[in-house]
């Protein structure tokens, strides 16, 4: 039995934030019914690369879901949605605020049909506030929240994160918030509206930056390849590349000096004696470490760090990461059979449960693949299904 087995989720989201949230819920056993527009479905279906005409981007984030292609602008389509909402526990949507109300599928409408519904809205700026009407995009919000001003190298152009951190972060935040609301519903019988915004979910992540700013007024700038408050905690160059070394406390710094780079005199050197000293002299410290590490390749230094108990690791490209024996042993790369794409690998499930492990039960659906099955599950007769198909209500 999976932990969320028996829970039905109506997914009216697309692209990344909402679908990532519902993928998490699906991995844990929830039944995910993905309601897609008839013309093209989820917009991520148009994102390449493609195999046999199917989007591999959509494939990666929409496993463990069933697809129904439904015209929500038609009255008959709305009635089908209401029937699905009545039998669902959770609804996830990421329209711009106001759109669900115009479609008459907003929280206030749905709670009249299903008072216990947990209804999650994911948007750029939230359902209230002066920016609520704006569309929200990951990169725009990386700029607005200050993240880009802290990323990259000092004196150079602001840099975005290498991945869509706020889209994924919003999906994760929505997932745990939905589960909290669902637990509350189990205790009280009351559903509620969960409001998640990309503009806010990342702010609590700025722990060290907030500590410095609120304490001293210091505005954090980009720290490049270094940690902003610990040294040496950064990438360093070796004979044949770069590795990460993390001396997050005095003990590991001293271990680095004595057991890795054979410089015990640096422990009492006034430039490097304390973490504050090392931060203040980090340019000089880095140059000296790299001078030593230029004598051997990365594998040599990683082995020495491992034996000394100094946290370290390789700086992999994505292909190297996907072939790492640790990830393979932990089932973080799995192969799935898709009806159109064929066999293809995807990222696995990061949470490991001792009793109820998550499972990839099905690949991402083709557009409208489960329309008939879903309609039959809510009592729609075959004759009506064919009529709706002829009238353009369903695909």
UniProtKB/TrEMBL annotation:
Alphabetical UniProt keywords: Transferase
Coiled coil location: none
Transmembrane spans: none
MF GO annotations: CoA-transferase activity
Pfam families listed in its UniProt record: CoA_transf_3
Protein name as it appears in the record: Formyl-coenzyme A transferase
Organism the protein comes from: Paenibacillus naphthalenovorans
Organism taxonomic ancestry: Bacteria, Bacillati, Bacillota, Bacilli, Bacillales
